[in-house]
Write a structure and sequence with these properties.
Elements lengths: L9 H4 L14 H18 L4 H8 L3 H12 L41 H8 L1 H11 L15 H14 L17 H14 L1 H9 L1 H8 L14 E8 L4 E6 L5 E6 L3 E7 L5 E7 L6 H12 L21 H4 L10 E3 L2 H7 L3 H8 L2 E3 L15 H12 L21 H8 L3 H16 L11 H10 L10 H8 L1 E10 L4 E7 L2 E4 L1 H4 L8 E6 L7 E6 L4 E7 L10 H13 L10 H10 L10 H18 L3 H22 L3 H7 L16
Parallel strand pairs: 1-6, 6-7
Antiparallel strand pairs: 1-4, 2-3, 4-5, 8-9, 8-11, 9-10, 10-13, 11-12, 12-13
Helix pairs in contact: 2-3, 2-4, 9-10, 11-19, 21-23
Amino acid sequence: MPKNTHRMTRDELNVADWKYPDEGALEGIDKKRYFSRKHAINLYLDGASAEQIKDKAGIGGAQTYRLLKERCLAVHSDGEVWGWRALVPWERIRPYRRKHQVCIDKYGKGGAGALTTLFLTHPELRHRFDKRVLSAGRVTSLSHLKRGRINHWNWLLEELRTLGYEAKHAWPFNTHNRGYVSICQYIKRLLDQNPVEAALVVGGPDAKKKLMTGDGTKRPITHLFERVEMDGHKLDGIFSVLIPQPSGGYLQKIVHRLWVVVIIEVMSRNVIGYHLSMREEVSKVDVLRAIKMALTRYKRPIISFSDEGYRQNANLPSGVSEDFVGICWDQTSVDGALAETCKHVKEVLRDVVGSELIDPSSGYSARRSKDDRPFIETYFRRLSTYGFQKLSNTTGAEPKKKRGRDPKAVALTSQFQYEYAHELLAVLIANYNAQPHNSLGGRSPLEYLQFRAMYPERPFRYADQTTVSDLLSFRKLCTVHGGYKVGRRPFINFAHGRYTSDTLGQRHDLVGKKIWVVAHIEDDVRLVRASTENGQSLGLLHVAPPWNKLPHSIEVRNAVASYVSSGKIRASAGHDAVELFIQFCEDQKNKKLPVHPAYMEARRILTEVAESITGRSMLELAKERQSAQSLARNDLSGESSSPLERHAAGEKKRPLPAPRKAANH
């Protein structure tokens, strides 16, 4: 211990703030040496003499002073002193620096610290080398990307040759591998010390954004319906659509793109709404329809490909209980790609749902970064892996996943239509909500939602269904025609139909002006809601013949209108165009081909209307009628022993058409 020196005190050294290592992780001789050093430092700071320190701790006074000055008081990379951490045996405090000239022996040894010495001799070379290693290339111009370790090693060797190291046979040219291992270790340490630049070099811009993205602790979700994630996903499959031909048959048309827009509630992991689209890209209409499904009552579709497709209690939340119909949420998280589309619905989310749109421009989320929307990205991966990618018409996530299959040929031969994809998607989503999740304590999303809803942290907010119908339904500005100048009551043309009402018929002042027309009931456009451009209601408008009898959607009307315009259907006075279209499809000669999609859609709407009136399934009623007809035929053939029964069975009755399973939209 040095003599005649001022002995530092605990307060001067701020010993109370020194950081500790994990003392429980030390074992054996290392643990014994650590506590001996720590005891010696404490004795020194308490004023003990060198003899006392040697006697009690087994360490001399000079060594104790060196441990304190050179190790404990050294500055750590975190900006604080090493403190007690420096007393761990074999812990390197400072990087190794060579004191003697590099001299490689005949066995290749003796080069420790050679690279460090070289860079200390040529600091400018080290600066250029570090810059080269941490450079990811230019973003807006042509440059070399992802240089490997061999590339950096060769560059450094060329620079050293220019400095004459090879001519002097100096390190690294006097070693067997020419310093390759040392240079690679230096590159690794450099990347470890600069993680942000390293992420950009190794993984690209996405890896850098991912590294800089938080872990979510600063934006926690504590309540139900506090945040939802919404995104679009392209289904990995090829499907077909049947188009009627003038000859009476059908032409199959390949559909290469099917998009599904999904909304998932973050806290409970429930899918609360979705929409299947055949467009080239996701549009604002698709987003609005997905939002509308999330805010309205969901009726689980009846599927035609199986009697046992749904799991027990499989559904969407709004289809389980009226308590979950129209629940609003606070935040809607989307990625950058969908954010461009969501700009058009941002105001709708604010006015109808009371939700803030979170996109890359508003903060932490990043364009196409899957880590900012982990739940919906995980769901899409699950939907592909356990859903459409299991079918033979799948294109797979990558072209090589086809494995010799021809998805286009499969779609044509199997006639896997768009309607079947819609049914399969409905089953997959409903079953997902009813499947237990490990992250939800073994409960399914629906069970967890019902459990949390019994003890809500705050009351739910509900959307006004009139507002939902007005702002989330298809709407169009239409010009008012007619008027007293031409001797006709005012009317408008909308979706191939002529609409008017008693209220509109008296508003001659609106002729030549535009009014808003809203198809507030998607499956029944016989009635539409109208209002002026400044929002004054004009009430309901009724469609004129031949569209005024059977309920139908805009898609069905467009298909029927194409038949009428081509002359295949003549909608004369007193007849309904939709009814004529259904009859036309049922009278086709080639019964083996599946029916037209618009026919399936029309039958679905009629079936749902009939079921809502009778309160019974049309499939059950059709089976009962078939059984009754079969019994009547048996009676007519002589199997009935009662003349009265034979007489009753012999009465002519108009048979019902064979039951058809409706497509689901």
